[in-house]
Amino acid sequence: MARTRLYRHGVLTAEGFPVADVSDHLEDPSAVVWVDLHAPTEDDLRAISEELGLHELAVEDALQRKQRPKLDVYDSHKFLNVYAARFDTESGRLEVADVAVFITGHALVTVRTSDDFAIDEVVRRWDASPRLAEHGVAFLIHGLLDYVVDSHFDTVEAMDEQIEALEEMVFDERPVGPDEQRRTYELRKSLVTLRRIVMPMREVVNTLLRRNEEIGDGALAPYFQDVYDQVLRASEWTESLRDLLGNVREAQLTMQGNRMNMIMKRVTSWAAIIAVPTMITGFYGQNIPFPGFGAPWGFLTSTLAIVLVSVVLYRVFRARDWL
C-alpha cells in the first residue's frame, strides 16, 4: 500500500491519491509530492520508477536489506539509505529499522521494509513545522533525518544509563553473576551495531549539507547544520561508550581475578595451618617409642606444639593479608 501527499506553494493540498497520478501533479512546478511505500514488490517500485525516472541500481538497492547508510548521487535524483534505532532496556538489545529514500527536485519517495520505522512520527514532525514546507523537498528530508538522528541520540542516552549501572556494580563485594555478564555482552553487541549505522551518518548529512542548494533554496542550511551537530554528538558518544564498556569489562575480569587470588591465598593459608597438626600427629604415630610415650606430659607437649605453631602461622598469614 502507498501513502501519498501533495504540497503546493508550501501548503498541504491533497493526500491519499494514487501513485499513477504523481507524474500529473509534478507537471506543476510549485508541486512537491511525497510517496511512502511499505514492503513494496518489484512491480510497485517499477511503477514509481517509471513515474520519476529512477535509476535501476537505486531501485535494486531499495529492494535489498542490510544496506549501509549512504547517499548515492545520480543524474536525475539521489538515493538515501538510513536506519532508525530503538534500544530495549529490558533485554539490552538494539532494534533497527531501515528506510530507503529517493530524492528528486520535486518528489520524495520513502521505501520501508517493515512497520518498525515509525513513519507517522516523521509525518508528525512535518505537520509540526508547516512554515518550513515552502522549502519543498529539503523540508521533507530534514524532517526524516531529524527523526532518524533523534532515535540514534535517544538510543545512545539509554545505553549510557545501562553502562553507568554496570560501572556501579564493578566494585561491589558480590561477584558478577551470569545475568550481568550477559547484559554486558548484549550491550557490547548493540554498541557495535549502533556504531555501524551512526558513523556513516556524518558523511551522509555532511554531503546533504554541502549540496543543499540542489534540493532547496539554502534557507534550511541552519536546520541541516543542527542535525549534523546531533550526528557528531551521537557518533562521538557512541565511540566513548564503546571504549567505556570495554574498560568496564576489563575491570570486571580484573576484579574477578583479584577475588580468585584472595580465595586461593586463604585456602592455601588454612591448608598450611592444618598441615602442622597433621605433621605432628603423624610423627607421633610412628611405631617406635617417642619422648613422653605412655606419659601424660607427652600428650600435653604435642597438643601445645600444635596450638602454638598454628597460632604463629595464623598471625604471620594475617599480617601479610593472606587471611
Automatic annotation (TrEMBL):
Pfam families: CorA (PF01544). Gene3D superfamilies: CorA soluble domain-like, Magnesium transport protein CorA, transmembrane region. CDD domains: TmCorA-like. InterPro entries: CorA_cytoplasmic_dom, CorA_TM1_TM2, MgTranspt_CorA/ZnTranspt_ZntB. SUPFAM superfamilies: CorA soluble domain-like (SSF143865), Magnesium transport protein CorA, transmembrane region (SSF144083). One of its GO terms (molecular function) is cobalt ion binding. Keywords: Cell membrane, Membrane, Transmembrane, Transmembrane helix, Transport. It is found in: Cell membrane. One of its GO terms (cellular component) is plasma membrane. It comes from the Bacteria. The chain crosses the membrane at residues 267-285, 297-317. It is a multi-pass membrane protein. PANTHER family: CORA FAMILY METAL ION TRANSPORTER (EUROFUNG). Belongs to the CorA metal ion transporter (MIT) (TC 1.A.35) family. This is Magnesium transporter CorA.
